[in-house]
Structure formats: C-alpha cells, structure tokens
Amino acid sequence: METLIKKNHADKQLGLGILILVIGSVFFLRNTGIDVPHWILRWHTIMLGAGLWMGYRKNFQGSGWLALTIIGGIFTLRAISIFDFNLSGITVPVVLIGLGLYVILKPKKVQNFDQYFEKKPVDFTEKES
Fold first, then answer.
1. pLDDT tens, residue by residue, 22-62
2. How far apart are alpha carbons 90 and 77 in whole angstroms?
3. Are 47 and 77 in the same domain?
C-alpha cells in the first residue's frame, strides 16, 4: 500500500513538474521575442492537456478524460492555422473519425448469454431493526 502511495505521489510530482516546465518555457520563448503561436496557452489547449493527462493516469479507461480531450481538441483545432489553411473546416470530421475509432477500439465487456437468464435466489427473510 505504501509503495502505491509513493508511486502515485511520484506521478503527481512528475506531471506537475512537466506542466510548470512547459509553461515556463513558453513564457521564456515569448519574452525573448520568439514567435509562439497564440493558441498555446489558451483555455482549450490546457483543457486538452488535462484530458490527456487524466486519460494517461487512468489508463485511458472511462469517459471523463475523453470529454475534456474532445472539447479541448475541437477548440484547439479551430484556433490553429497552418500555412494559411484554417483547420476549422476539418474539425468536425476529425472528431467524428476519432469518436468512431474510440467506439471500435475500446475494450469490450464480454458477458455470456447464460448470465442473462441465470436465476438468483430471492431472500424473503424479514429484517428486524
């Protein structure tokens, strides 16, 4: 149990350290005059990063991280323009393709057909309080 707590604490420290390092590097580059894209430190990029980090921490299981990642990804793709080509026209198709791949590739919960019709004993004993 103690090793699990230490590992969890080490993961949190690593994630926080990387986050602070990235934000500090972006501010450093911006203050030295290097052109940093405007969308780097916006709310949607931070939401995208938080969603991916949550997914990594939970081995990409569940759907909370996916919602953050999709919302952050949509707004981040809308803000990015590469070579005067605006990515907002392909945002919805990319999200739909990603969602389809997630539905196809997510782990399946396998239940036998017999489990649906399995009779479970009913307890009719009275509970005294």
1. 888 888 988 888 888 878 888 888 888 888 888 888 888 87
2. 9
3. yes
CB atoms within 10 A of CB 65: 19
CA dist 63 and 56 (Å) reads: 12
Quickly tell me which residue has 């103690």 as its tokens. Answer: 2
pTM for the model stands at 0.55
Identify whether the C-beta of residue 21 lies closer than 8 Å to the C-beta of residue 61.
no
Helix (H, G, I), strand (E, B) or coil at 81: strand
57 and 11: one domain? no
Per the structure, the complete domain to which residue 77 belongs is given by 37-106
pLDDT in tens, 90-125: 777 888 888 888 888 876 666 666 666 666 666 677
With vertex at residue 35, the alpha carbon angle to CA 34 and CA 40, rounded to the nearest 5 degrees, is 115
